[in-house]
Amino acid sequence: MATESRRRVLAGLIGSGIQQSLTPALHMEEGSLQGLDYRYELLDLDRIAGGATALPSLLASAAERGLAGLNITHPCKQIILPMLDALSDDAKALGAVNTVVFSEGRKVGHNTDWWGFAESFKLGLQGAALQRVVQLGAGGAGAAVAYAMLKLGAQRLDIFDIDASKTRTLVASLSELFPSRQISAVTDLRVAMQAADGLVHATTTGMSKNPGLPLPADMLRASQWVVEIIYFPLQTQLLKTARSIGCRTLDGGGMAIYQAVGAFRLFTGIAPDAQRMARHFDSLARRPAALAATE
After folding, report:
1. What separation, in Å, do the N-terminal and C-terminal C-alpha atoms of the chain show?
2. C-alpha to C-alpha distance for 220 and 4, rounded to whole angstroms
3. Which of 230, 237, 239, 245: CA 20 to 30 A from 268?
4. Which helix (H) or strand (E) element contains residue 198?
5. What is the pLDDT of the chain when averaged over all its residues?
6. Contact (Cβ atoms closer than 8 angstroms) between residue 8 and residue 37
7. Neighbour count for residue 218 (Cβ, 10 Å)
């Protein structure tokens, strides 16, 4: 039971197949340590009648119940856009939202994914060559990661997605934002990989519910770096394969941590302790039960 000295904050996550998410634990632990009565709920579309079609009613209900905000994940990061009253500059530029803040009767969309990815990359792959980067995936998370890579200084970004229309749309929007960079839609992934300094993987292939490699292993070279955005499992087949070849690798844990840092700040108005949240994530991700659930 909350006391008068502890401000109550309610938040949540909407997405598909989110039961293993570590986001609730990250938010609630940091909230408690910041002196808040922090509650965080999961709204799993796989367990809600209508799935993604229930998104408008879920948003309305969350606002009515007094939630400070919601995190948004697959498959809602782009379809949610017309349901919001306003977008931050980054969310508008990206055309994707991973955080919604309820404030003064309005639903405002933000994107902390790109910043979270950029922070993780800077910490985990210092000095990585960025002349030519290949990215797999052009969805909502892919848009944020591509934006981050260009912000980090990638000179050429080659994007591949099985949905060619998504790729073309993302390439067009990024080309307007970064006119001095080379941004291309890839049709021949093998040729693109032969010239790449590194690979960013931003599809769902490799998740515990969708295992496997997103590209043939023989496309990788030891001189390349490989970055994953998936964190369930933390060590995907792609990362294991890349490391066995000799590539530098970076798992999706850092992006998960730092997007949560950004969302916590938006929900509460309090700057969280990012290093403490990182330590908490690390302890959760490496628990035997959590690891078993991701195999």
Report:
1. 37
2. 57
3. 230
4. strand 198-201
5. 93
6. yes
7. 9
Q: Which amino acid is at 62?
A: A
Name beta bridge partners: 42. Answer: 13
Q: How far is the C-alpha of 69 from the C-alpha of 71, rounded, in Å?
A: 7
Residue-level pLDDT at 4:
57
One-letter amino acid identity for 90? D
- The C-alpha atoms of residue 129 and residue 119 are separated, in whole angstroms, by 16
Model confidence pLDDT, tens digit, residues 124-137? 999 999 999 999 99
User: Is 87:80 a contact under the CB 8 Å cutoff?
Assistant: no
Q: What DSSP character marks residue 207?
A: B
| Amino acid type, 167 | T
Q: Distance (Å, rounded) from C-alpha 103 to C-alpha 146?
A: 29
Q: Residues 208, 295: contact at Cβ < 8 Å?
A: yes
Residue range 26-79, pLDDT digits in tens: 999 999 999 999 999 999 999 999 999 999 999 999 999 999 999 999 899 999
Q: How far is CA 217 from the centre of its chain?
A: 24
Active-site entry in 77, 107, 151, 166: 77
| Residue 230: closest CA among 247, 245, 208 | 208
Euclidean distance between CA atoms 63 and 68, whole angstroms = 8
Number of H helices, E strands in the chain: 11, 12
pLDDT tier, 232 (very low <50, low <70, confident <90, very high otherwise): confident
Peptide bond into 24 cis (omega under 30): no
Contact 198, 133 (CB under 8 A): yes
Active site residue 209: no
